[in-house]
Amino acid sequence: MGQHTAGTERVADAEHMAHGQREPRGTRTHRPRLTSGLSVRAKAVLAAAGTVAFAIALCMLALVLALQHNLRASADLDARKAAVAIKGQLGKTRAMPQRAYIVAAPGAVTIRDASGRTVTPTAPADAASQGSTGLPALPVEPTEPVEAGQPYSVTVSPSTTSLDSATGLLLRQVAPAAAGLVLFVAGLTWLLVGRALRPVAAMRREFTEITERDLHRRVPVPRARDEIHRLARTMNATLDRLHRAMTRQRQFVADASHELRSPITAVRAQLELVLTRPSRTDWPAAVHKALRDTDRLQAVASDLLLLARLDAQEAPPKSAVDLGALAAEEVRRHPDALTMDQPTTAGGHLTKTAGHLTKAGGQERTAVVTGSRVQLSRLLTNLADNARRHTRTTVSISVAARGGMVELAVDDDGPGIPESDRERVFERFTRLDDARARQDGGTGLGLAIANDIAHAHGGTLTVLTSPRGGARLLLRLPRAA
User: What does pTM read for this prediction?
Assistant: First the structure.
């Protein structure tokens, strides 16, 4: 009773502590697993050794169960044979001497007469012979008189000696072999996994030493065409992209510094010249020159800020924008240099007459896209300004809806863009040979900004040959649903 009471008190204390120490909801922490601090090599060894040990244990269990089943069946059969033999001796009609009863049984024998009285014989300690059943035959003497021809019931217990000895022998023989096999598999796994992970260690050492100043270095690629080989190639491809991005970033910083330094230097030179000859200076002309350089400096700074925002991959505002209306506004700002002669609607046309736009047809507008009106207006302005700087006469703008896309084309009749430079013109601070003069007003960022805006809106901007002989800048954007 005392032990039972003490055990009950301990259980109650444990439950009280469990309820008292229960963590508040929302502050539960994840305990680290037992294998969280192990290496991949150690985890692989544990997994392999555990799997083999589990398989061997299952095989040994099945073998022991099968052996025990067979031995029990054999012992039961021997016991039944012995009981039949004893009962046959007891059923003889001729009386036999008391010492002549032979009990050949694998286990204990119980004999009962018709009244249920036990007349179990007892075996002398010095008798041992072989009976006709193949079992040890022990001459026994009944404790009670046995009358011939009387009915008796005989019960023989099967022997478990052979079962226990066979099971013990099997376990003693198989257990060392199983342990040796598990150790062999663990050692082999340790060696193979270590050899397989050797390139990973080399890759890790090389990757640890790579900094932003030596992105040209690459991790070693193993010759085996396995997962580690593909991992190394992926890491090197990532390093290639980082190297190219860093190179472009450094070139961009250098070009931006150069572009900003030029107008600053010009303004400084003009101010220093004015200060040296203040009485002979045309102050209005000097101020106008300084303002022009300041405007150029402001344009470069604005373009750099817009590029920084585009590089941040900020999603543009989602609103319906009619490219036809944007193009019409651009033409109205420059009526002497821009014309619009292509359809902006499904059947309607815009034509230019004396600097004014008129719309033919009354169908619903279809050149509508989703995006930022401010950015798309900047894109169109950059394309128009670039075309106006290179055209001989005028620039034509056309907008049309084709399937699920809206196309905006800006054509000029200038010298055009060679095919070898049609990808390079979208790089930042890029000027072709006939457009390198900064007095033309370009910063070298207009087409780069337009290309980035087009990609931010899920579209494309390509350079083609215009039917007018110059260059065609074709913008394709997804049509609004």
Answer: 0.53
